[in-house]
Amino acid sequence: MNHQVIGILAHVDAGKTTLSESLLYLTGAIRKKGRVDHQDAFLDYDPQERDRGITIFSKQARFSWKNTRFTLIDTPGHVDFSSEMERSLSVLDAAILVINGCDGVQSHTETI
Fold it and tell me: Domain boundaries in the chain?
């Protein structure tokens, strides 16, 4: 079986955790999609993250699709936690850059 490490990157509130939750749910890795605003996201389990409604720490989860096992890394999007996101880059095989269609490219998106 092939193995890939992919990271989800974006500015804050672009939908990284929502996309991550959907990928995990649709591939059967989790039974229920959580939501950041409901404080029940699978990948945002730290109390600080739930209180603030943002990802602070990079998290990983695994799922399989077809003949590939993926390690998914959900990274923080807030500029204050950029160093946490940057640490994740060295282990990635691929990155998915999420851009919110309503907000468009933000200044931090260009930095990422």
Answer: 2-111
Measured distance CA(28)–CA(30) in Å, rounded = 5
Tens of pLDDT, residue by residue, the chain (112 residues): 899 999 999 887 788 888 999 999 999 999 999 887 788 888 888 888 888 877 888 889 999 999 999 999 988 877 777 777 888 889 999 999 998 888 888 877 777 7
Q: Which two tokens stand for residue 41?
A: 């996201």
Which among 94, 108, 91, 87 has a CA at the least distance from the CA of 8?
Answer: 94
Instruction: Give backbone dihedrals phi and psi of 62, rounded to 5 degrees, phi first.
Output: -120, 145
How much is the pTM? 0.83
CATH superfamily for domain 2-111 = P-loop containing nucleotide triphosphate hydrolases (3.40.50.300)
